[in-house]
Amino acid sequence: MRKKAVVMVIVLIFIALSVIGDRYLNRSNDSNVFSGTIEGTELPVQSELGGRVVDLLVSEGQVVKAGDIIAKLDDSQAKISLAIAKSQHTQAQAKLNDLLGGARAEEIRRLEHLVSQAKANLSALEPSLKLEEDNLAANLKLYESGAISKQVVDTQRTKLDTLKAQYQSAQASVDATQASLDQAQAGYTQPTIQAQKAAVDIAAQSIKTAELGLSKLTLKSPASGQVLYQNVELGQVVNPGSTLATILDPNDLWIKVYVPGAKLSQIKMGGTVSIAADAYPDKTFKGQIQYISTQAEFTPKNVQTKEERTTTVYAVKIGITNTEDQLKAGMPADITLE
User: Fold this and answer.
1) From residue 142, how far is each of 132, 135, 152, 156, 159 by CA, in Å?
2) In this structure, what are the phi and psi dihedrals at residue 12, rounded to the nearest 5 degrees?
3) Are β-strands 312-320 and 243-260 bridged in parallel, bridged antiparallel, or unpaired?
4) Do residues 68 and 244 make contact, with C-beta atoms less than 8 angstroms apart?
5) Which string of DSSP letters, residue by residue, matches 311-337?
6) How is the chain split among helix, strand and coil, in percent rounded to 5?
7) What domains, with CATH codes, occur in the chain?
8) Residue whose C-alpha is closest to residue 138's, from 157, 117, 113
9) Whole-structure pTM over 0.85, yes or no?
């Protein structure tokens, strides 16, 4: 019984090896079959800004979804810039509101009071000015008659000049306060208002710029996939453009094969091919030709025979259209032209 069992096992092994051997022999003899390795599109997660990595939320091999946070850079300075921009916008908007609303009633009343006070001061000086002018005229007559000295006349003239200067200053105060009152009552001019509106718009754009800079310090996954490489460590300072992680997109799998020039007439852009993977010997998948090189090259060095290495070929990229979540990057596969 044991001998029969052993013989049966040997027979089954021989049959299996024969089937597999025939399969690969048929593949190798089929001139329309080309071998390659399944590859996936690698998406780098790069930072537009530099800074220190303060949070690292993924590790190699981890599966992530599009939009998941990969890492965060130090954002303390960016938050300060945003707060300053918001404060400047608030100030600019408040000033614009004042210009659009015109002068407040309290301000107008205050200016009216200043005008009245300035006019009162001017009026109070007028009698004294008239008196000193009359005194100077009288002193000049007395001086001409020899009743008083020239020094008395000069003293009176100086007194009058001082009073005139006070009167002129009071008149200037009346003019200035009246101009302020007139402007407050008339409101601000359109050029002034338009200039302040522009200042508000600039401040608003500064907020958007600060918010954009802050958002760029949070790095997110560009697509769903698997973390292939973790390129930085927590606490590391990175430069702008640095790659923090690399994501493998499992939904964008493809194979590159090299087709001899004599076979180019059998393929075309958009054409379909059959894909057989060693991991699934009894199943085939579909692929579509996405790219055909226009430049010939020598067969890659990993080809075994010298004759094949001297053959010029064309690179052909084939996108896998139905992976059924079974094919993975790194798997060897055979492509059959249809």
Assistant:
1) 15, 11, 10, 13, 17
2) -65, -40
3) antiparallel
4) no
5) -EEEEEEEEES--TTT--TT-EEEEEE
6) 50, 25, 25
7) 31-72+224-337 (2.40.30.170), 82-210 (1.10.287)
8) 157
9) no
Average pLDDT of 157-183?
88
Rg (CA), the chain: 47
Segment 119-147 mean pLDDT: 89
Nearest CA to 68 out of 187, 318, 300, 244 is that of 244
How far apart are alpha carbons 244 and 228 in whole angstroms? 11
Contact 53, 233 (CB under 8 A): yes
Mean pLDDT of the 67-84 span: 94
In angstroms, rounded to a whole number, what is the distance separating the alpha carbons of residues 300 and 259? 11
Q: Which residue, among 207, 258, 234, has the nearest Cα to 88 in the 3D structure? A: 207
Mean pLDDT of the chain: 82
Q: Which distant-in-sequence residues (6+ apart) come within 8 Å of 235 by Cβ?
A: 52, 53, 54
Alpha-carbon gap, residue 251 to 270, rounded angstroms = 18
169 has pLDDT over 50: yes
The pLDDT score that the predictor gives to residue 10 is: 53
201 phi and psi angles, rounded to 5 deg: -65, -40
**Strand partners for 128:** none
Question: Tokens 């407040």 identify what position?
Answer: 104
Give exposure, 89-99, as e/b (b: 16+ Cβ within 10 Å): beebbeebeeb
Type of residue at 65: K
pLDDT tens by residue, 304-327: 444 555 567 888 998 888 766 778
- Cα 79 to Cα 213, 218, 219, 271, distances in angstroms: 9, 13, 16, 53
pLDDT band at 15 (very low <50, low <70, confident <90, very high): very low
Residue among 43, 40, 66 at smallest CA distance from 251: 40
With a cut of 80, say whether residue 190 has pLDDT above it: no
- Sign of the dihedral defined by the CA atoms of residues 316, 317, 322, 324, in that order: positive
